[in-house]
Amino acid sequence: YSQGIRAASGKLLPFEAIPQSPGNKWIGMLHAWRENGIENYHLEMHQNFQQLGPIFRTNKGGKQRVYVMLPEDLQTLQQADSLQPLRPTLEPWIAYRQDRGLKCGVFLLNGPEWRSQRMKLNPDILSPPAMWNYSPMVDEVAREFCKILKAKVLQNARGSLTLDIRPGIFHYIMEASNVALYGERMGLLGKDPNPTSLKFLAALETMFQSTVQLMFMPRSLSQWIKRAVWKEHFEAWDYIFQHANNCMQKIYQELALSHPHHYSGIMAEMLIRADLSLDAIRTNAVDFTAGSVDTSSYSLLMTLFELARNPKVQQALHQEILESEAAISEKPQRIISELPLLQATLKETLRLYPVGVTVDRVLTSDVVLQNYHIPAGTVVMVSLYSLGRNPTTFTRPECYHPQRWLERKDSISRLPSWGFGFGVRQCVGRRLAKTSILLLLYHMLKNFQLDILTRDDIKMKHYFVLKPSTFPPLTLKAIK
Ligand SMILES: C[C@@H](NS(C)(=O)=O)c1cncc(N2C(=O)c3ccc(Cl)cc3C2(C)C)c1
């Protein structure tokens, strides 16, 4: 083996000795063939870990993949990251962009091009000054959302309202993202949702659904047996790109006509900074516009669900929120740094319901994982779903207990949370996501007591994002 690597402890085992997941490579494709075969992707991985141990490998169509689930292996991968960590490509997404002669955004790029673009995006979407600029805009949307909801609750004689909160949350997230990205209100709150936003949500749903049907088999095969799926995949992308380009067109025209003297959103700042080409800004605008919707919405929904069925946690959080009311109303950007229990709540949600089920890397150097030699070039996937539910990593993992993230320094649970990935490739939208999610939770818990009738676990399904297969009605009771 390459002499450069030393066994962590005991003798180094060869790659071939890594347990292989049962069933031959066609089983995986068979799953992909079936409509909903992939929605249990995270559960099959979890089962494999239970049968084979904390590391296993698959060999699908000649591609060697290794799966791990322990924090020590995630940390080894983080240390092995190069300056431009490599992620496996997503063939259907690349195919669409190639066919349409479009560029890829940072999510799909690798190597020097990724690094160059990422460094130029960070200042306007990830940096603290950027967050200070867009937080007040997001706060206004969160306040308005709760004001409208509260009026509905108080209309009822009982002073409570039971509803399917999903549409409202999706429209809140779209409205908040749009105001942060484009400095513009879409008017989605309260009123009946307009057909454009509904079509955009439908296109996203179709895009995700068709992605999982195509991503697990080579295009050489799927272009024949999944021809109809490719067609709907491309149509969904057409609509998504058209929607984002429309948003960009409007601010581009306004900027060309007159330079604003004040902050008017993330994308306007990027156009003014002009560090990136217009093409690169437009293509990343698609990632931000589309990439903020399902990810933030499902993180919010699963948090509301857990707070509704864990009244003690909800009460503790309500207490923290009351104590910080003055600080937040003065400076909403404090939301992601000054409420430890609120931050821990989002970490706990992403531990149990990681929207991004795995963090993926293509190794650029040899590493040792669980005493096995893993050569450069191997695709390694860390299952956040299994990591978050491992009883030796988190005590009583099935228990929704945000305080675990605030316990003593030395305890294992004082781990960083990996819901947004790790290292320099960590989610570029994570501060916008946290701001939108935490500000809404803040205003919801200030105004309502959340309740739920059915306390059963919700079965999650994998549609590229990890989403609830059902979502029970929530009961909101107005506070004061
Ligand atoms: C779920 C998790 N997957 S993962 C682990 O591979 O990153 C994830 C985390 N953050 C953002 C996303 N995005 C989307 O949802 C999405 C939709 C349309 C476009 Cl054009 C771009 C995106 C991105 C990739 C930004 C996806």
Compile the SSE list and pairings.
Elements: H1 25-33, H2 41-52, E1 55-60, E2 63-68, H3 71-80, H4 91-99, H5 111-125, H6 128-155, E3 160-163, H7 166-182, H8 195-214, H9 219-225, H10 227-257, H11 266-273, H12 278-291, H13 293-309, H14 311-323, H15 325-330, H16 340-352, E4 358-362, E5 367-369, E6 372-374, E7 379-383, H17 384-388, H18 430-447, E8 448-452, E9 460-463, E10 465-468, E11 474-478
Parallel strand pairs: 2-7
Antiparallel strand pairs: 1-2, 3-11, 4-7, 5-6, 8-11, 9-10
Helix pairs in contact: 6-7, 6-18, 7-13, 7-18, 8-10, 10-11, 10-12, 13-16, 13-18
The protein binds the ligand C[C@@H](NS(C)(=O)=O)c1cncc(N2C(=O)c3ccc(Cl)cc3C2(C)C)c1.
Would you mind describing this structure in some detail?
The chain is α+β, with helices and mostly antiparallel strands and 480 residues long. It is built from 18 helices and eleven strands. The strands form four sheets. The protein has a four-stranded mixed sheet with strand order 1-2-7-4, with helices on both faces. Strands 3-11-8 form a three-stranded antiparallel sheet. Strand 1 and strand 2 (63-68) form a beta hairpin. The longest helix is centred in the middle third of the chain and has 31 residues, at 227-257. It is globular, with a radius of gyration of 23 Å. The mean pLDDT is 93. The ligand C[C@@H](NS(C)(=O)=O)c1cncc(N2C(=O)c3ccc(Cl)cc3C2(C)C)c1 is lined by residues 107, 286-287, 290-291, 294-295, 355-356, 427, 465.
